[in-house]
Amino acid sequence: MTAQAGATDTTGHPKANATLAVVVLVAALIGANYSVMQIALEHTTPLMLTGFRVALGGAALLAYTRWRGEPFPRDPRVLLGIFLVSVCVTTLSSMTLVTGVSLVPAGVAALLSSMVPVWTALLAFSLLDERLGMGAVLGIGIGVIGAVVLSSPALGGETSLVGVLILLFSGVAWAAGIAVLRWWDFQGATPLMIVTIQLVMSTVVVVPIALGVEGTAGTDFGLALLVPLIYAAVPAMALTFVLMAKVTQEASATQAASVAYLTPLFGVVFAWFVRGDRLALPEWIGGLLLIIGVVLVTGTRRPT
């Protein structure tokens, strides 16, 4: 990615400030989503919430791309690549993310989910033959240690070990989707259209699964569900994808990567402010190590 001059100017240039503001906004929107999803889960079940999210988010992006006149890819190979990304990111990762959030505190979920750059670096090294510098290797090591320390309260029954493992798998699935994005030839399909199609594809898969496995008996259709659902689907999913497309085009590598370690910070803050969650000492130490690891990885690798 070649950053534009205005986007890399950190001396007070208005465009640089605007781009940085978008980065912070994206991290805040995603960070708050963990607490918002826990509120929504008080009125529905994990798979149903996932289905609602991808359906509403996909509909919002589909309307936006039609309004922009985005070209729709028709090559079967391109659509197959988008389907593979959809399976990894907005199907497997999204379903396991919501399930994990239902089992652990929102702050812990946000911290564990920030491991994606670490998993991405490992997959890029093992599958794509991408070289890792010493900083990235050190960051991966510190990140893994941080995840172990962060998860240690689960071994004592203070939080759900199953939830921790599910969230770690969610991150690996997301990283696998990123690997497909880097390896597959999408023949000029725009990132926004790729995300839109993958959400529509996930809707076709997730909604029937949710209806078949959980049904609607555990869902309270009302305003108490609608408000957090709209946030989780539109600002925290559809809008952040659009904003991240803008960041990818205009931000420097450091600015774009900063989303990865600002998100857990906002996640912990919102979990305390909205849900009253408080992290124990091992979770603080593990979270700090994890963020340091992510900073090292994203600071020495060009982010996808």
Radius of gyration: 19 Å
- What's the number of structural domains? 1
Structural classification: mainly alpha
Strand content: under 5%
Number of strands: 0
**Count of DSSP H/I helices:** 12
Gross morphology: globular
Quaternary form: single chain
Q: Helix and strand succession?
A: HHHHHHHHHHHH
Largest sheet: none
Low-confidence residue ranges? 1-12
The span between the termini is 9 Å
Helix content: over 70%
Characterize the structure shown.
- The chain is mainly alpha-helical.
- It has one domain.
- 79% of the residues lie in helices and 0% in strands.
- The protein contains 12 helices and no strands.
- The longest helix has 28 residues, at 223-250.
- The radius of gyration is 19 Å and the shape is globular.
- Residues 1-12 have low confidence and may be disordered.
